[in-house]
Amino acid sequence: MADSETQEEGDRWREENYLAEFCQKIGVKFFFHAGRLWRSMGLRFYVPTPNSLPVSLTANELNLLWGHNVWFLQHAVPDEEEGFPSYAFLLRDKNYDLSHIKSSDRRHNIKRGMKHCEVTRISLRLLLREAEPLIVDTYKRQGRNCDKKVLEAWRRYFLAADGNPLFRAWGAFVGKHLAAAKIEFVFQKGVHPEALFSRTDLLKYYTMNVLLFISTKETMRSDDICYLSHGLRPITGEKESLANFKESMGLGKIECKERLEINPRVKPFLGQPVCSICSYLPKKIFERSEYVRLVAGIAFTYDRQIRYSTSDF
């Protein structure tokens, strides 16, 4: 028993060191607390990994984090704690297969797609060479800005992930063309997808359906993997069509409670006025600036949390 615990501690120490090294290489602020890796998404806003599993933070713990210049924390909380209704995607079924795809149309599309594309593990080096058109197409479909800074950030990401034993990638090929790609990392016996990119002109072959299905199926068959987490609802919101797609793919949508923790020094500057200002901002501003999207997401989430806490529910 002692040897097993020692092995687990050693594995955790190595994983944390590999993730710390990765975050340092891409210039992302981070810290480890409560058994989680907390990464900054910008504006001193942190989310945990894994973030589909609940975590409790005491007042003393929060005061400690505020003292380290953390401004915001978004996380799932246990049912008995204060929070508001949310959702996450968490798959634990080791027998994931086509029976998990509830839509007959979706199953049909996956089968059709498998006739045209092949899914396999790929190197991060391949993404360095071939991912740019996929990234550009994906950002364009999502109405997000994809300038040289964005592409350079992804290039740094691929370079940092390459050679890191926790990171891996999957690719869907139509002929010799990379049509879709998925990047993920392993942490605490779970797999955490980071990004999905795809070429628009090859979506007609259902490349994303096939990529997600086969990579998920093979991942859940691994003896050393206990779950796959697509995470808690993003603070910037998620298009209903995307959430529905993930749910239709059987990726384990679960109901949970969410909470946004706010540094007391920052809280007075949030509230309904900020939400009102964000509501009137032109759509183009949200498309051009990830920071504007993040500020709006934080403001709207905080407003929702206040409304729920003062309701009769």
How would you portray this structure in words?
By secondary structure, this protein is of the alpha+beta class. It has a domain of 166 residues: Gcn5-related N-acetyltransferase (GNAT) (Aminopeptidase, 3-Layer(aba) Sandwich), CATH 3.40.630.30. Strands 1-2-3-4-11-5-10-9-8-7-6 form an eleven-stranded mixed sheet, sandwiched between helices. Helix 1 runs antiparallel to helix 6, helix 3 crosses helix 7 and helix 9 crosses helix 11. The mean pLDDT is 92.
Task: Please describe the structure with a list of short key phrases separated by commas or semicolons.
313 residues, alpha+beta, Aminopeptidase, 11 strands, globular
Short structural description:
The chain is of the alpha+beta class and 313 residues long.
